Amino acid sequence: MLAVRNTAAGEAAAERIRATGAPGSVAVESLDLASLESVRSLAARFDGPLDLLVNNAGVMSPPRRRETADGFELQFGTNHLGHFALTGLLLPHLLRTPAPRVTTVSSIAHRRGDGAVCEGNPAQGYDPQTSYGRSKLANLLFASELQRRATASTAPLTSTAAHPGVSATNLVASPDGLGSIPVVGTLGQWGVRLLFPGPDRGAEAVLYAATVAEPGSYTGPTGLGETRGPVGEAGRSRWAQDEALAARLWERSEELTGVTYRF
């Protein structure tokens, strides 16, 4: 299942998958992680067991602060709270399988995040890069805390995290982020394509994390400051290793989304 905001693009991707002749079926569902109503709607429509959930949506560094449909800062709301709510609401389906796995995509930019991650990127002092870094730090803290809580409850769930390094996708050119700056939207994507690997290489760390990586692990490229190269263990900032901060973020996320995890 491809759960996407742009269903036309999702259907095009689904057709490319079907054209490979791989076994199985591909479905496309509408999901806007910037809307808790949309998240709840998808979770309510989902039926059956769920073996693997890959949390891989994102918006990067809009120059001016924007908000989700629920009033959260756009990056914190989309990149973290949307995934937190979706995973929690789908947890009963995950626990119906013998070895469920959740993989959450973070970024080397998580190093820009800090102990203020629980504040949700308030309007006062908004900085695009710091706010993005906090949202990706939240991804990594969430993945680690999910593994700790699953282990404590003896649930069979495995939680992993990964980052793609720097990959030539349309993230830079997206009008929801840096692409809202005209020159970046026009030229940024071409510059990234010239300098960095394509999305197929960027996906390698995510695929590894989604299939064979150890519980609680963080995977990414290991060359050139983790921007590219062979897949291996990724580095974490000191904030990303702070278990007390992860627990506080979890509790705050439950308050903001109204979603409680029941293992």
Automatic annotation (TrEMBL):
Superkingdom, taxonomy of origin: Bacteria
Keyword Transmembrane: no
Matching InterPro entries: NAD(P)-bd_dom_sf, SDR_fam
UniProt keyword list: Oxidoreductase
Oxidoreductase among keywords: yes
Gene3D superfamilies: NAD(P)-binding Rossmann-like Domain (3.40.50.720)
One Pfam family of this chain: adh_short
Protein name, entry field: Oxidoreductase
